[in-house]
Amino acid sequence: MKTTVCLFFAVCILCCSLCGCGTQSGVSAGGDSSPAASNQNEFSQQTEGSAPASDESDVVDLTVLSSTMVYAEVYNMMFTPEDYIDKTVKMRGQFAVGQYVDENGQLDPEPVYYACVIADATACCQQGLEFVLDGDFTYPDDYPELGSQITVTGVFQTYEDNGYTCCHLVDAKFID
Length: 176
Hints:
- The protein is globular and about 45 Å long.
- Strand 2 (88-101) and strand 3 form a beta hairpin.
- The protein is 23% helix and 35% strand.
- It has a 5-stranded mixed beta barrel.
- By secondary structure, it is of the alpha/beta class.
- Residues 1-54 have low confidence and may be disordered.
- The longest helix has 18 residues, at 2-19.
- It has a single domain (34-174), classed as CATH 2.40.50.
């Protein structure tokens, strides 16, 4: 009897795994068969209050995703930045500031980097995205308190810094 029940559950699990919830022949609704493109179509959506864009795929609204999915999508932005260039990104996280430290352990006054930092669901890992505000702002007068929750939107771009490709949001704005 136990063998029959175990065999029945094994067959059920096998059937479920074969049926899965994928798309036919691995092709997404957008006609692209790559998993990255499929994920991009799912998560790149225009929402009310987002910056206007010529196409819905030009907006990546991270504020509508769970903490796990936001973390994964920001990681994907860092890993494959070419997929996000010129897209409008909207994200919510903690405000952070970064500066280089010189060989004597003193903070270099320039450059100062401002970022929106998000954590994964367990808060063990963090990933941040630098932003550059649109306009003339002075830190700390025109910025929120360190560690406070912010929502920021801007256009995703890359730049070179000391031989590394870095990502940031340009023409960024805080959203209430």
